[in-house]
Design a protein that fits this description.
The chain has about 500 residues and is an alpha+beta fold. Helices cover about 35% and strands about 20% of the residues. The longest helix has 23 residues, at about 350-370.
C-alpha cells in the first residue's frame, strides 16, 4: 500500500501536508459484485446496441445459439476501434459520466459494455476492425480470479477464427464484434440450459423493437438502422400509432433549462373500436393499453422508460389512450437520475412540476375519446343514447336519453299507458347496467366485433333508423351509436344509396 504526501493550500494561504493512502480495489471481489447490478438479458443486449449506434452503425446483426457451445454475439458495421481505443473501451470507467458527451452519444458511465456483458457471461471477447486493421481483447473472469489482477487477454488468431461471425467482420472495412461465452448467469440454475436460454431470450425481439423503434425507421432525415436477431428483422413498433388517422396529436411544449430543452408532445390514441388487433398489440404490448399509458422518456431518441406517470397522477381508465413523448438530451443524465442500465429515470422537481401542469391539458380530450369514441371533437347536433347523471358530488349513474330520436319516435307512437311502461323500461335498463362487467372488458382492451361484423351491424341499425325516425341519412349518421364510427360513414352512404 503506497503512502503519498501531497501539499495543499489552507484558507490562510499556508502550505500544509495531506497524507493519503492509495486503496486499489480487489479485482475479483469488485468484478463479481458488479455482475449483480441487475441487468436483464434484454437490457444487456440493448446496452451493446447503444455502443453500436454511437459508433454510427446502420446494420446490427445479433445471433445466439443454445446448443453445444452456447453464445450470444453482436456484429455492427460502425466506425470500429484501433488497438489503443479498444484497450481503453475494455477499461472499467472508460469515460467520466460528468464529462460532456457528443449530442448523439448513447453512453454515459463507460461501464455498459463490460457490466452488461459480464452480468450474463464469464468470458467477454471484443474484436474490432478499423482502417482494415483487426484487434481483439477479452475479459475472462477465470483469468482474473487465477491471478487476482485486472488482466485483459489478447486472444490468438486461431481463437478469433472460431468465433461466430468473425469472418463477416473481416469482410468489413470497419466494425465491431462482441461475443459472450461461458453464459453462467444466463443459464444459472437451469435443469435444461438450452431451454432456459431460449426462454430468457424470447422477449428480446419485442424489447429491442420498442426501445429502438425510432432508430428502426427514418426520422428527421436520419436513415434507419437495420437490426436482425438470428436472421429475423426486428419488427417495426410505434407506441404512438402515427399511421392511424384517428390519433390526435395535441399541442406540444418545450421546457427550457440551462442544460438544454425538454420537448413534450402528447398524443391521444384512437379508441379501441378504431384499432385493429395488431394496433392494440403495437400500442399496448403485453400490458395492454391501460398499463402502458403515460410518459415515454427518450434520451437521444432511445426509449429509456415508458408507461409511467411518475406518481403525478394514478393510472386510470380515462387516461389509457394517452401517450406523452418526452425527449431529453444526454446533458440531463444526472438531473434525471439515469442509472447504469439506462432503464430507470426520474425527472427533477422543476421539470416534474411542469409535466404535472400539462396533464389537465390533455386529460379532458382523453376522457372524451374514451367516453365518446370515434369523434375527435364535438359533433354539432350529436345526441347521446346514454346520459351520465351526477345527483351529488361523488355519485353517478347512467340513464337512457329520452331525447334520443329513436326513443322519441317510439314514445310518440304509444298511448299514455304505453309511454308509462316505456319510461319504466328505460329506468330499469339504466339501473341494471352491468358496470363491473363493462369496466372489466374495457380494461382488457377487448373489441366487441371485427370490422366486418361492425359494418354489418351499422347497416342494420341505419336502415332501421331511416325507417323508424323518418330522418335523412345525414341526420342518421349523427345519431348515437352511428356517429361513433366515422371510418364507416362513406361506405354506409354507398350502401344506403343502393
Amino acid at each position: 500500500m503506497a503512502v503519498v504526501r501531497w501539499f495543499r493550500q489552507n484558507e490562510n494561504g499556508e502550505m500544509t501536508n495531506l497524507e493519503t493512502l492509495e486503496v486499489i480495489p480487489d479485482p475479483i471481489s469488485l468484478m463479481e459484485s458488479m455482475r449483480a447490478v441487475g441487468y436483464s438479458v434484454e437490457a444487456a443486449v440493448a446496452d451493446l446496441i447503444d455502443n453500436s449506434i454511437s459508433a454510427k452503425a446502420d446494420c446490427i446483426d445479433i445471433k445466439y445459439d443454445a446448443t453445444d457451445s452456447p453464445f450470444v454475439a453482436l456484429l455492427d458495421n460502425g466506425c470500429g476501434m484501433t488497438p489503443v481505443e479498444l484497450t481503453n473501451a475494455m477499461r472499467h470507467g472508460s469515460h467520466n459520466p460528468a464529462d460532456e458527451r457528443a449530442p448523439n452519444d448513447l453512453g454515459r458511465f463507460g461501464l455498459g459494455l463490460k457490466t452488461a456483458s459480464l452480468s450474463q457471461c464469464r468470458k467477454l471477447t471484443v474484436v474490432s476492425r478499423k482502417d482494415c486493421v483487426t484487434s481483439s481483447r477479452r475479459w475472462d473472469l477465470d483469468v482474473v480470479q487465477r491471478y487476482g489482477r485486472w488482466l485483459v487477454v489478447v486472444p490468438e488468431l486461431k481463437e478469433l477464427e472460431a468465433l461466430p461471425m468473425f469472418s463477416h467482420l473481416q469482410a468489413l472495412d470497419s466494425g465491431t464484434l462482441v461475443v459472450w461465452q461461458d453464459l453462467d448467469r444466463l443459464t444459472a440454475g437451469a435443469l435444461d440450459p438450452q431451454a432456459e436460454m431460449t426462454t430468457k431470450l424470447s422477449s428480446l425481439y419485442e424489447h429491442l423493437a420498442l426501445v429502438f423503434h425510432r432508430f428502426t425507421q427514418k426520422e428527421d432525415g436520419i436513415g434507419p438502422v437495420s437490426m436482425v436477431v438470428n436472421g429475423q428483422q426486428i419488427p417495426l413498433r410505434d407506441p404512438f400509432l402515427r399511421s392511424n388517422t384517428f390519433r390526435q396529436p395535441l399541442e406540444g411544449q418545450v421546457i427550457k433549462q440551462e442544460r438544454g430543452d425538454v420537448r413534450v408532445l402528447p398524443f391521444i390514441l384512437p379508441p379501441v373500436s378504431h384499432l385493429s388487433p395488431d394496433e392494440i398489440s403495437l400500442a399496448g404490448g403485453k400490458e395492454g393499453l391501460r398499463g402502458t399509458q403515460g410518459f415515454y422518456i427518450y434520451r437521444n431518441r432511445r426509449l429509456v422508460i415508458w408507461g409511467t406517470w411518475f406518481r403525478l397522477v394514478p393510472k386510470e381508465e380515462f387516461y389509457k389512450l394517452t401517450r406523452v413523448q418526452v425527449d431529453i438530451p444526454n446533458s440531463f443524465d444526472d438531473l434525471w437520475a439515469l442509472d447504469i442500465k439506462k432503464s430507470v429515470a426520474f425527472p427533477p422537481e422543476a421539470i416534474r412540476t411542469r409535466l404535472k401542469g400539462l396533464i389537465p391539458h390533455f386529460a379532458a380530450t382523453s376522457k372524451k375519446t374514451v367516453t365518446y369514441p370515434g369523434r375527435k371533437q364535438s359533433v354539432k347536433g350529436f345526441v347521446p343514447l346514454w346520459m351520465r347523471i351526477e345527483p351529488h358530488h361523488g355519485a353517478f349513474r347512467y340513464e337512457l336519453n329520452p331525447e334520443h330520436p329513436v326513443i322519441q319516435s317510439l314514445s310518440s307512437k304509444l298511448a299514455e299507458d304505453g309511454q308509462k311502461y316505456l319510461q319504466m323500461l328505460l329506468s330499469l335498463l339504466g339501473d341494471a347496467l352491468p358496470f363491473e362487467s363493462i369496466y372489466a372488458d374495457m380494461c382488457g382492451d377487448r373489441r366487441a366485433d371485427g370490422d366486418a361484423e361492425t359494418f354489418a351491424s351499422l347497416i342494420e341499425i341505419s336502415t332501421s333508423l331511416l325507417e323508424i325516425t323518418g330522418l335523412s341519412l345525414d341526420q342518421v349518421l349523427q345519431i348515437d351509436p352511428i356517429v361513433r364510427y366515422p371510418q364507416h360513414h362513406d361506405k354506409l352512404r354507398l350502401e344506403m344509396d343502393k
